[in-house]
Design brief:
Elements: E1 2-11, E2 15-18, H1 19-23, H2 30-37, E3 41-44, H3 51-66, E4 75-79, H4 90-97, E5 106-109, H5 115-129, E6 134-142, H6 152-155, E7 160-170, E8 176-184, E9 192-194, E10 200-202, H7 204-226, E11 235-236, H8 243-252, H9 264-267, H10 274-284, E12 293-300, E13 304-311
Parallel strand pairs: 4-5, 4-6, 11-12
Antiparallel strand pairs: 1-7, 2-3, 6-7, 8-13, 9-10, 12-13
Helix pairs in contact: 3-4, 7-8
The protein binds acetyl coenzyme *A.
Length: 312
Amino acid sequence: MGSRLVGYGSYLPERVMKNADFERIMDTTDEWIVTRTGIRERHFAAENETVVDMAATAAVRALNNANLSIDDIDLVIVATTTPELDFPSVGVQVLGRLGATHNTPAFDVRGACTGYIYALHCARAFFTAGIHRRIMMIGAEKMTRFIDMADRSTAVLFGDGAGALIFEHSSSSYSGIIDTVVMADGRDFECLHGTNDHKISMNGPETYKKAVQCMPDAARYIMEHAGITAENVDWIIPHQANLRIISSCAEKLEFPMDKILVTVDKHANTSGASGVLALAYAFDNNIIKRGQLILYPAFGSGLTWGAALIRV
Ligand code: ACO
């Protein structure tokens, strides 16, 4: 049993923070940021805007896109690492915000930047087992909660936002979430992690090295597992952390850059929202067409990494 994509939606906060805005508050330059990361701007949530606010808006837009109501959904999975509350889950709060009345279950997945792949992995398992028939997965992050404006090496890298995808059960195993793989190695915890005082601790060069190794590995693994080659893939949507990481992965996979979706210049790294926001952007701008095969490799704190293969 498989699935098919029936709706998508996204939300980006109104405030756009350009590299020039950082130049005014810290010792950095647009040139440094663009050369090292490819990032030109990112969206910053308002102080009182929460992960639940952003996730709920993306969810409503996805439901409208699919012409469904929240009570048509029978499971909500939210990928987030930046919830304001430790409990209940962002998923349950979104259900409350949207007025769900059918006792729909919801839970959050904490996979950092790989969170949306972990969420897709769970969704695929539920479809395969025939347990749920219509699943909404949301990636939502308020990374600005962790941004330390005194640390120029991480402050410029992240942004806020949310994206939502709705999949429903299908008898075809060639549409929707076709395959997923997720991995983790806790021994590399020191590379990149949140601190108790809500800051980001990152060894940039080490994280970079791991990312350009793990994302192509996951991409190759899933293609082999699904019995396809790069020629069968229409688009690669890598986790949007850094343009140099994305280019290096494309080179390693011998995949042309014009088939790699890049949104890191506009959104920066939105962690668990990154790939979902990127797909929504591609639909909104008619870049990716329905029916195309997307390879989704991701990498994040943990370390965690993985990939999904989705026919949209
Ligand atoms: N502006 C100007 N200079 C800066 C800035 C900044 N914003 N940040 C750091 N620098 C300086 C450093 O202080 C250092 O100066 P020094 O040589 O005088 O000490 C110099 O730039 C070089 O610093 P490096 O860390 O060596 O720079 P590097 O070329 O490695 O680039 C970067 C840094 C962009 C962070 C890179 O290591 C990288 O991309 N790493 C991957 C990290 C990443 O993408 N993380 C996101 C999380 S992964 C995931 O999504 C979970």
